[in-house]
């Protein structure tokens, strides 16, 4: 009872803790000798978690630099957790309380969450007042963004330091963040300043705040900074977070405080649970830590191997991962809403007990979420407005890494002869939509066609990036991606940043095969909803004298105009590669050769990965019915089995 | 056990009749499937990928384009199952007659007569068995799932798995018990010229429970043999593959041999049931009457 009251006292007044602690927290050690990023938004946060009430008590000091040439008269902040405040937030209205298959238990009062900003003061100065705003919609019930007018404007190059106090109630996990039983994944939890975009940044014509409401599908957008975070939890909790642990102190009241330090990151998340099992490994300069559910301990190597494969692949093909560590959290099955999420140097994976090796769920999630260290953390695109730039690019790399590591046709699943590759799975998601022309990849996430956010952002983008790779060749593709990475790391790229680099490199390297620029490509696949489908309609070969006159007709069934190769194979073994710009509706090739034409194939190398049907790309004049016989025999066999199973009941 | 296997194999013509019946039903789907596949692939080169092995992209592209042509065929397949279920009920009397008159191979003529004579009894028995079967299988399974859902927080993932799997396993054991009892009831209906299906089911149940090893034990031994044969089939499938006409034909033979072995197993099972029944309960009467249909 005594301890209990004591405990509560410190949770209410965490700043009293040092009075009754053992030891002292060390001053943070710098990670990088010279800053890698502009370090615009820097936070010092002291937060304590009450695992009984699921509440956070926090104090933070934000130092924000005005790196623009503008005079700043107001600040804007995200209060993300207010998305879970009630049914009326924009997040809840858009999601209907469901995200990625997980639902909020809306009758459970404990399931909801919120942030309460208690005070904001200029350091050593005036108290500030704020008001809720809704920059994206007219939903005045949404409380996820505030504007804070400054009585003393902030001039170019000046900095402001703010002291803030806040409380938060964590939601029951269904969308990334919150608690589930005694597991905590604390993300989007502190009042976070938006991004001030000076004229010329991304699409900004004049200086403006980019601080969107929390939407169902959109993730985040933030400036780089340094984070120093002291986390207080009960002693028995295992804590891990973004950045590096600097030290910990035990308090006499049964709690402890851990200090974390992170540099050049765009966000800070942490986890706490009394039941993790830790596994560690080293890849070059990176220490990998996996926090597993005890029941998944035997899958530690699967996570580590996947993380190492991803680290090595990105290092070789894109650029260096500069951070000294990577933490992978495996959330419990009852907290699957927190699985598969990315934060700087800190990701969540997701697996289940005894999952067969042939179902590469932990591997895929690890590779994917690690990829966001590039497409989100190192290249801080705006995930509200251009989710394809992080999710789609990352999905493309997930496919490349998984296919190279686990086999191109077996990287997603390989079980009982049923085999699926990662990249072909992405393609399948997009090309086999009932209507692949449902929308572009480009657009504000909350304005993409309903329920098609995932496929347009992830699958379609990955598929057309693989198509771009097909058209240009992997070497040129890698050069483009490396240039994009070098030029835009620790900045805020947008579509134009990427397209400019493609146009700079691709035409020259391909001998202007596809024109002076590649805009025609992006107009169709990124901004457009054009569908690509080529069909080989006929092949014929007639002897005329000593020669054979052969004709091949190819039709463009879709409205996407893509250049396409057509391969002709003759009886004497000769092969002829022809080319069509795909601009018309149909094209007939006529060739005269000494041998008879045997078969023809449009796009034989499957460069046009967005082609919605590869099966109609080829025709042979010597068909075999063996495949049909094989499957008919199998169908016969399994129907007979089905009959005899039923006969067992009679 | 082996004597009954010999008795079963001796009646090759009857086994062939049953095999052909199920094969004709299977071909009702397989032949249209063959012509549909040949027609739809449009002489594409891509289908050759499916010859070498499974290819997800080719398969998905095909199903997306032609799934509507394939699914009615599979639905025909489902319905032939119902037809064959009733044909199996019809065959039961004839199959049992092979063991009721063990002195010589059963003539096809007598086989048909026996089928006809006993079909109504066995239809009634099926009607009695089915609710027991469903209850035996579903109640433990649903109970396992229900406990897992309601008390989810009390269990680990492993615990939840074993709870549901345990429900399934108990359901499977109980269902096999019901099916085994039903087989003994079939013999009872034939040998004792019993008319009441429910009464026969009850008597058979008592017999099975009195001699579980001789009855249920042998039943599971046959399920075990069937499972081993399935393992053998998958092994051969992975060794031979079906990537050329030669291996397709070879595997077709293997497949059909496997199907034939299933029919032998089914006959053998009834033979064992007949012999065990005679051993523990039956009067050893040489000839069972095949009169007019009742
Ligand atoms: Zn992602």
Characteristic terms for this protein:
heterodimer; A: 650 residues; alpha+beta; Immunoglobulin-like; Neutral Protease, domain 2; 3 domains; 8-stranded mixed beta sheet; 5-stranded mixed beta sheet; globular; B: 294 residues; mainly alpha; 9 helices; 84% helix; binds zinc ion
Report on the structure:
The complex is a heterodimer of chains A (650) and B (294). Chain A is of the alpha+beta class. Chain A is 25% helix and 31% strand. In chain A, a hairpin with a 2-residue loop joins strand 21 (277-283) and strand 22. Chain B has 294 residues and is mainly α. Chain B has helices at 2-10, 12-40, 47-52, 56-100, 108-150, 157-191, 197-210, 212-240, 245-280. In chain B, helix 2 packs antiparallel against helix 4 (56-100), helix 4 (56-100) runs parallel beside helix 6 and helix 5 crosses helix 7. The structure holds zinc ion. Residues 368, 372, 391, 394 of chain A line the site of zinc ion.
Shape of chain A: globular
DSSP helix fraction of chain A: 10-25%
Topology, number of strands of chain A:
34
Order of helices and strands of chain B: HHHHHHHHH
Which ranges of chain B are low-confidence, i.e. pLDDT below 50, for 5 or more consecutive residues?
Answer: none
Reported CATH architecture of the largest domain in chain A: Sandwich
Q: Total number of helical segments of chain A? A: 12
Ligands, ions, cofactors: zinc ion
Q: Which segments of chain A are poorly predicted (pLDDT under 50) over 5 or more consecutive residues?
A: 1-15
* C-alpha end-to-end distance of chain A: 68 Å
Major sheet: arrangement of strands of chain A: 1-18-19-16-2-3-10-7
Beta-strand content of chain B: under 5%
- How much of the residues of chain A is beta strand, in percent? 25-35%
Reported for the largest beta sheet of chain B, the result is: none
Number of strands of chain B: 0
Residues in helices of chain B, as a percent range? over 70%
What structural class do you assign from the helix and strand content of chain A? alpha+beta
Tally of separate helices of chain B: 9
Separation of the first and last Cα atoms of chain B = 32 Å
- Major β-sheet profile of chain A: 8 strands, mixed
Organism (chain B): Arsenicibacter rosenii
Protein name (chain B): Beta-carotene 15,15'-monooxygenase
Keywords (chain B): Membrane, Transmembrane, Transmembrane helix
Keywords (chain A): Metal-binding, Zinc
């Amino acid at each position: 009872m005594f301890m209990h009251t004591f405990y509560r006292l410190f949770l209410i007044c965490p700043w009293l803790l040092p009075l009754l602690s053992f030891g002292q927290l060390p001053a943070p050690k710098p990670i990088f000798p010279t800053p890698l990023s502009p370090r615009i938004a820097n936070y010092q946060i002291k937060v304590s978690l009450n695992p009984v009430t699921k509440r956070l008590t926090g104090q933070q000091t934000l130092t924000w630099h005005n790196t623009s040439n503008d005079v700043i008269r107001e600040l804007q902040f995200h209060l993300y957790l207010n998305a879970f405040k009630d049914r009326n937030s924009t997040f809840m209205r858009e999601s209907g309380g469901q995200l990625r298959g997980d639902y909020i238990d809306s009758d459970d009062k404990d399931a909801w969450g919120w942030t309460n900003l208690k005070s904001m003061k200029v350091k050593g100065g005036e108290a500030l007042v704020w008001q809720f705003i809704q920059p994206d919609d007219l939903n005045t019930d949404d409380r996820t963004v505030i504007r804070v007018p400054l009585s003393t404007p902030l001039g170019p190059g000046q900095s402001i330091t703010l002291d803030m106090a806040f409380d938060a109630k964590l939601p029951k996990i269904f969308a990334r963040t919150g608690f589930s039983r005694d597991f905590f994944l604390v993300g989007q939890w502190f009042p976070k300043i938006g991004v001030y975009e000076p004229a010329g940044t991304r699409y900004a014509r004049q200086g403006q705040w980019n601080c969107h409401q929390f939407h169902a599908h959109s993730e985040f957008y933030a400036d780089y900074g340094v984070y120093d975070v002291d986390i207080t939890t009960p002693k028995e909790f295992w804590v891990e977070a973004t950045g590096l642990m600097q030290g910990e102190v035990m308090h006499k009241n049964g709690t402890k405080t851990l200090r974390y330090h992170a540099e050049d990151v765009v966000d800070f998340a942490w986890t706490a649970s009394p039941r993790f099992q830790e596994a560690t490994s080293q890849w070059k300069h990176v220490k990998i830590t996996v926090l597993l559910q005890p029941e998944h301990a035997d899958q530690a190597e699967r996570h580590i191997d996947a993380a190492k494969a991803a680290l090595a692949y990105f290092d070789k093909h894109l650029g260096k991962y500069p951070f000294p560590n990577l933490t992978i959290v495996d959330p419990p099955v009852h907290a699957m809403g927190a699985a598969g999420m990315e934060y700087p140097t800190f990701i969540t994976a997701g697996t289940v007990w005894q999952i067969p090796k042939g179902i590469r769920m932990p591997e895929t999630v690890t590779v994917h979420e690690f990829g966001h260290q590039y497409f989100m953390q190192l290249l801080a695109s705006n995930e509200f407005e251009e989710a394809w730039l992080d999710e789609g690019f990352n999905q493309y790399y997930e496919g490349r890494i998984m296919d190279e590591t686990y086999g191109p046709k077996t990287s997603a699943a390989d079980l009982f002869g049923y085999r699926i590759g990662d990249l072909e799975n992405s393609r399948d998601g997009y090309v086999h939509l009932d209507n692949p022309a449902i929308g572009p990849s480009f657009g504000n996430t909350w304005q993409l066609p309903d329920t098609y956010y995932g496929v347009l952002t992830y699958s379609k983008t990955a598929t057309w990036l693989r198509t771009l790779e097909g058209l240009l060749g992997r070497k040129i593709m890698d050069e483009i991606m490396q240039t994009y990475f070098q030029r835009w790391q620790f900045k805020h790229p947008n579509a134009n940043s990427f397209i400019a680099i493609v146009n700079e490199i691709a035409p020259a390297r391909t001998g202007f095969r596809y024109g002076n620029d590649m805009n025609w490509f992006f107009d169709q696949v990124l901004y457009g909803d054009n569908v690509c489908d080529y069909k080989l309609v006929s092949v014929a070969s007639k002897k005329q004298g000593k020669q054979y006159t052969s004709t091949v007709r190819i039709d463009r069934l879709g409205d996407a105009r893509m250049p396409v190769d057509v391969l002709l194979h003759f009886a004497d073994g000769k092969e002829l590669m022809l080319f069509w710009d795909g601009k018309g509706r149909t094209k007939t090739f006529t060739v005269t050769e000494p041998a008879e034409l045997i078969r023809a194939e449009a796009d034989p190398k499957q460069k046009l990965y967005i082609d919605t049907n590869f099966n109609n790309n080829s025709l042979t004049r010597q068909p075999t019915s063996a495949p049909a016989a094989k499957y008919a025999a199998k169908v016969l066999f399994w129907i007979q089995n089905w009959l005899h199973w039923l006969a067992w009941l009679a | 056990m082996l004597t009954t296997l010999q008795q079963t194999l001796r009646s090759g013509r009857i086994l062939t009749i049953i095999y052909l019946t199920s094969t004709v039903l299977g071909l009702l789907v397989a032949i249209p499937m063959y012509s549909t596949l040949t027609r739809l692939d449009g002489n594409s080169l891509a289908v050759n990928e499916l010859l070498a092995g499974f290819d997800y992209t080719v398969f998905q592209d095909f199903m997306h384009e032609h799934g509507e042509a394939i699914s009615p065929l599979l639905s025909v397949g489902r319905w032939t199952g119902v037809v064959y279920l009733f044909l199996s009920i019809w065959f039961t009397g004839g199959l049992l007659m092979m063991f009721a008159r063990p002195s010589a191979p059963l003539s096809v003529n007598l086989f048909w007569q026996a089928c006809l004579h006993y079909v109504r009894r066995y239809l009634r028995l099926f009607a009695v068995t089915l609710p027991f079967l469903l209850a035996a299988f579903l109640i433990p399974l649903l109970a396992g799932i229900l406990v897992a859902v309601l008390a989810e927080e009390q269990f680990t993932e492993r615990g939840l798995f074993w709870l549901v799997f345990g429900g399934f396993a108990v359901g499977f054991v109980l269902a096999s018990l019901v099916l085994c009892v039903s087989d003994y009831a079939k013999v009872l209906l034939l040998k004792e010229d019993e008319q009441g299906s429910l009464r026969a089911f009850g008597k058979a149940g008592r017999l099975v429970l009195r001699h579980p090893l001789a009855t249920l034990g042998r039943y599971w031994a046959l399920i075990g043999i069937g499972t081993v044969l399935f393992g053998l089939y998958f092994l051969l499938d992975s060794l031979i593959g079906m990537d050329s006409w030669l291996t397709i034909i070879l595997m077709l033979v293997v497949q059909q041999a496997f199907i034939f072995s299933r029919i032998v197993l089914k006959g053998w099972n009834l033979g064992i049931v007949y012999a065990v029944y005679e051993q523990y309960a039956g009067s050893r009467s040489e000839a069972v009457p095949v009169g007019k249909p009742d």
